[in-house]
Design a protein that fits this description.
Structural class: alpha/beta
CATH superfamily of the largest domain: 2,3-Dihydroxybiphenyl 1,2-Dioxygenase, domain 1
CATH class of the largest domain: Alpha Beta
Mean pLDDT: 86
Radius of gyration: 16 Å
Number of helices: 2
Distance between the termini: 22 Å
Helix content: 10-25%
Strand content: 35-45%
Strand order of the largest sheet: 1-4-3-2
Low-confidence stretches: none
Order of helices and strands: EHEEEEHEEE
Shape: globular
Number of domains: 2
């Protein structure tokens, strides 16, 4: 067995209002969050099977910040894979969410938005899904 990294265990974002942020992602990304700690932590899991055939999952959660997050807070960006970038962006724009200009590369198409707390979000449509995904 490889002793190195086996996958992504989770993405944990700090938020002023994790409940409101989880509701925004649910409304615009179609994600269903669980309330793991009332008022403090909302998350979900993406299950998968790892290369060794073991069941695993990647966690995505919003956690209540321990102190107010000011202008100088560290930047973070999560990349979300989408099936149809144009349709997804059109839905976001119809909901009043500004979408940054799209960019195309040999391996896929990209667009960017920000959530209500300022986290930058990258939307990615691969030109062709890799084998096994």
């Amino acid at each position: 067995m490889n002793a190195g990294v086996r996958g992504l265990g989770g993405i944990f974002l700090y938020a002023e209002d994790p409940e409101a942020l989880s509701k925004w992602y649910a409304a615009h990304f179609g994600l269903s969050f669980n309330e793991w700690e009332p008022g403090r932590c909302y998350g979900l899991e993406f299950p998968y099977t790892d290369p060794d055939g073991q069941k695993a999952s990647t966690v995505f959660s919003f956690n209540k910040a321990k102190a107010p997050l000011g202008e100088g807070r560290p930047e973070c960006m999560v990349n979300w894979r989408v099936a149809d970038l144009d349709a997804f962006c059109a839905r976001l724009e119809a909901a009043g969410i500004p979408v940054e200009p799209r960019e195309d590369y040999s391996y896929g198409r990209f667009a960017w938005i920000r959530d209500p707390e300022g986290h930058r979000i990258e939307l990615y449509q691969p030109h062709q899904e890799p084998d096994g995904l």
